[in-house]
Amino acid sequence: MLRSLYTRLQRLSARDDAVWWMSAISFAESSFFPLPPDVMLVPMCLEKPKRLWFYTNICAFASLLGGLLGYALGFYLFESIGRMIIDFYNAQESFHHFQEMFTEFGPWFLILKGVTPIPYKLLTITAGFAHLDLTVFILCSIVARFSRFYMIAILLHFYGPQVQHIIEKRLMLVATVLLVVVVGGLLSFKFV
């Protein structure tokens, strides 16, 4: 089922109204949809490289807005809708683990995990359920989501089609390397 959906989304990326579809997917993925917007963002950026930053900004902003829906589902509607989404993805263990991480690391956990390609919906719903301060949630989400999609845009800008396979198949590895570089950089400033 996911392969069929993946193929359909890639076909949508070639349409004239692709930016609207990508926005909708990016919004929905942050709260309930199974596939990330990368499925559309990457081919759209490769097809029209001059619009790469426009597409990236739209994708990140839509993800941020969708994250607010996910937060609201966790904060206000966890028992009726939030739990149903967690159960649908069979992510109960991840949900409990994320709760523990929010308790231990707070907003840093949201920033660090929000950059990776793990399902962002789990983070947003958990943040709402954990009653993470909304302003903190928004600020962390801005950093996390824009960083995540800018990472893809930078790779596409410099390496183009050569990295498409790496982005699609090894995004977790790329995100982990980026995280190590960012955290290492932040720690080096702390100890200087």
UniProtKB/TrEMBL annotation:
Domain VTT: 56-154
Keyword Magnesium: no
Record bears the keyword Transmembrane: yes
Any single Pfam family the record assigns to this protein: VTT_dom
Keywords: Membrane, Transmembrane, Transmembrane helix
InterPro entries: DedA_domain (IPR051311), VTT_dom (IPR032816)
Ranges that cross the membrane: 54-78, 171-189
Name of the protein described by the UniProt record: DedA family protein
GO terms for cellular component: plasma membrane
Taxonomy of the source species: Bacteria, Pseudomonadati, Pseudomonadota, Alphaproteobacteria, Rhodospirillales
Domain of life according to the entry: Bacteria
